[in-house]
């Protein structure tokens, strides 16, 4: 697990990496609309990354063919952009990884193009779970504490945690230890330390807790083909809490 508690330059590069990622996602929140093609989003992301002298960390990672994961409705994560225009009623998750001067950040949002109140609640609860988890981060807590509060947030709204997909450490690689499950037991798991870099990413669905692979061997969908939502931040653990990097 990357720990940069005493490395000021690495911290600065991490902040820059996170700022690039955050700005790209914020711009997509405004520009992506019903009718936007997923391939257009991929193009926009690539252009922005190049302009800011950064690298897309997902591109060619274990053979993944795209710079950004675009996952629609029942596809939870690892959606490969294809010739599809967003429709009314869609939930579109955008998951992006950035490398700047060898510092990795990871972030995700779900855009809601549906008028269904259930879709709105699913997105709100998933985002709330991310916020609740970040609020309790400080040196000395365990990964089980994070999973526990994420699961409790899901249960309070009667939605399901996707059990087989997790958060993780990051900073010097796309995925590092520890694995951060979106469920857990308080005071169990790996202890969090100041200087750690964590990617916290709750993924919820209406009915599904289990996953299935799509035909492209990359994209992961809900077992019941129900809609899903995904939100993620990279955070830096400080002496007193957590700083949101993305």
Can you give a write-up of this model?
- Residues 14-239 form the Peptidase M24 domain.
- One of its GO terms (biological process) is proteolysis.
- The chain is of the alpha+beta class and 246 residues long.
- The chain has one domain: Creatine Amidinohydrolase.
- The protein has helices spanning 8-31, 38-51, 117-136, 143-156, and strands at residues 55-56, 68-72, 75-77, 91-100, 103-112, 160-161, 167-169, 176-180, 197-200, 203-205, 211-213, 220-222, 228-230, 233-237, 242-244.
- Helix 1 (8-31) packs antiparallel against helix 2 (38-51) and helix 3 runs antiparallel to helix 4 (143-156).
- The protein starts with 7 loop residues before the first helix and ends with a strand.
- The mean pLDDT is 96.
In short:
With 246 residues, the chain is of the alpha+beta class. Helices cover 29% and strands 26% of the residues.
Characteristic key phrases:
globular; 246 residues; five-stranded antiparallel β-sheet; initiator methionyl aminopeptidase activity; alpha+beta; metal ion binding
Alpha-carbon distance between the termini? Answer: 18 Å
For the largest beta sheet, what order do the strands appear in spatially?
A: 8-7-9-14-15
The fourth-level CATH homologous superfamily is Creatinase/methionine aminopeptidase superfamily
Number of strands: 15
* Main beta sheet: 5 strands, antiparallel
| Number of spatially distinct domains | 1
The CATH class turns out to be Alpha Beta
Helix content: 25-40%
Radius of gyration: 17 Å
Helix count?
4
- Stretches where pLDDT is under 50 for at least 5 consecutive residues are none
User: What's the CATH topology name?
Assistant: Creatine Amidinohydrolase
Pfam families: Peptidase_M24
Family: Belongs to the peptidase M24A family.
Cofactor: Co(2+); Zn(2+); Mn(2+); Fe(2+)
EC number: 3.4.11.18
């Amino acid at each position: 697990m990357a720990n940069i508690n005493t490395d000021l330059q690495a911290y600065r590069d991490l902040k820059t990496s996170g700022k690039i990622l955050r700005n790209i996602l914020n711009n997509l929140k405004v520009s992506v609309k019903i009718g936007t093609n997923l391939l257009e989003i991929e193009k926009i992301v690539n252009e922005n990354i190049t302009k800011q002298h950064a690298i897309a960390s997902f591109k060619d990672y274990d053979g993944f063919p795209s710079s950004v994961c675009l996952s629609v409705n029942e596809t939870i994560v690892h959606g490969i952009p294809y010739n599809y225009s967003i429709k009314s009623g869609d939930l579109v998750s955008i998951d992006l990884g950035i490398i700047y001067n060898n510092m990795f950040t990871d972030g995700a949002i779900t855009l809601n193009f549906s008028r269904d109140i259930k879709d709105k609640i699913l997105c709100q609860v998933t985002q709330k779970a991310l916020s609740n988890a970040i609020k309790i981060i400080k040196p000395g807590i365990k990964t089980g504490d994070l999973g526990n509060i994420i699961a409790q947030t899901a249960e309070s709204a009667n939605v399901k945690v996707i059990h087989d997909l997790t958060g993780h450490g990051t900073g010097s690689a796309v995925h590092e230890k520890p694995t951060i499950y979106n469920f857990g037991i308080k005071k169990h798991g790996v202890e969090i330390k100041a200087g750690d870099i964590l990617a916290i990413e709750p993924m919820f669905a209406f009915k599904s807790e289990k996953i299935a692979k799509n035909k492209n061997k990359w994209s992961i969908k809900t077992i019941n083909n129900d809609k899903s939502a995904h939100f993620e931040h990279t955070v830096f653990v400080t002496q007193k809490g957590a700083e949101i990097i993305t």
